[in-house]
Amino acid sequence: MRFAIVLLVVLAIACSIASLVTQGQSYEWYAQRYSERTAALIIALRLDDAFHSAWFIAINGFLCLNLMLCTLQQLPGLIKRTKAHKLPSEMPDAQAEGIDDPEKLFVKLGMRTIVRGEDGEGRETLFAAKNRAGIWGAFVCHIGILLLIVGFSLGQMTHGEFTAYGVPGQTRAVGDTGLALTIDDFSIGLREDDTVEQYESKITVTDLKSGASETASVSVNNPADLFGMRFYQNSTGWAAKVSVLKDGLPLDSAVVCAGELLPIKDKPELIVYFNAFYPDLVMVSGVGPSTASGQLNNPGYLYSVYYNGELLGMNVLKDGEVVTIDEYTVAFSEPQSYTLIQIKRDFFAPIALAGGVVTLIGLFLAFYLQPQKLWGVREDAGWTVSASCRKGGKLFKERFLNAAGRKEA
Known about the structure:
With 409 residues, the chain is of the alpha+beta class. Helices cover 31% and strands 41% of the residues. The longest helix is centred in the N-terminal third of the chain and has 30 residues. It starts with a helix and ends in a 5-residue tail after the last helix.
C-alpha cells in the first residue's frame, strides 16, 4: 500500500505537469512560446505527448501491477472469512444472556441459515451470518479501478479520432482505417419558430478491403456503432456548386464546402478558395458581409483567388454573378447544407465501462451491505448470544438488544 501511495503521488504530479504543457506541438512552437532550452527539455522528456510516453505508461503499469497484487493478497483471507461457520474470536458488539429460544432471536434478525456445532469445551453452539458479500466491497472496487485504468490507458494508446464531411452523394475516406463513409442523406429538423431542433444524417460505411458495408442514421446525441467505431453527428455548414468555364466552355464542376479550395483543372497553380457563405447577404458598414437570417433569401459567396500561393483578390458573388480570371470564368450556385460526422475508435472502451460498473457494484457492497454475525453458546442458565457487525455496529446493536428484549446499558 505504501508503494501504491507513492505511485499515485508520482502519477498526480506527472498529470499536473503534463496539463501545464500544450500537447502535440512542434519543437519550434515550444521554442517560440518558452525558450530553446525548455523546448528541448519538453521534447526529450516527451512532455509534448505525455500521456502516450513510455514513462507515463510505465507508471500506470506499475500501479496496475501493484493494485492487482494487493488485491490478490486479500483473496485467501476473504474466501476464508466467507466460508467460516465457526464461532468468531472477535469481541462482540452486544451480548445477551439467559436466552431460552435463541433460534427465534436469530430469525427475528434475519438469520435463517443457522449452523449448529460444539465449542472446545463440548458446549452446544449456534452460528449465523448475513450480508457476507459486504466484505467483498473493497476487493470488487479494486478490480473495477484496475479495469478502469487498463481500459482507459489502452484506449488512449490505441484510440483514433477522425472527421468526414460532405453533402449527400459524396464519399469520404475515414482516416487510415480502410473505411469509406458515404453520405446518403442529410436533413435539418426545424421547430415551428424556424429554430433548429435536430440534425440527422443517413450514412453507409464500407470496408474497402472486403467490400462489406453497414448503414445507419446518426443524429445529435444518437451516435451509431459501425465496424467497431462510433459515428457522431457533430455539426453542419454550407456548401455550393462551383462551376468553371474556359473560353466559355464547361471545364469543371464540383460541390465545395465552405473552407475548401478548388484548383483549376488544367492550371492547378490557380486556386479558387470558398471562404464563407451568407444565406441572406447584407453588407454592414465597417464590418463587411454578414447575413440577416438563416433563410436563402439573398445568397452570397465569399471567395478568394490564389496563383502560386499569392492572393490575387477576394470578393463576394451573388447567384448569377461570375468572376473572370484570364480565360476562366467561375460561378457559384446551388447552396446546400453539408454534414460533419465525427468518428471515434476505441476498442478498449468496453473494458473501461465494465470497470465503472464493477466499481459501482463494489461501492454498493462496501457501503450498503453490512456484514452481521450472531453466535450463541449454551450455558447452564440458558443461551448466551453475541452479535457483531463490522459496519454500522451501533445500529445493529440496538436492533439486537430490542429483539432480545434487553435494554442498552
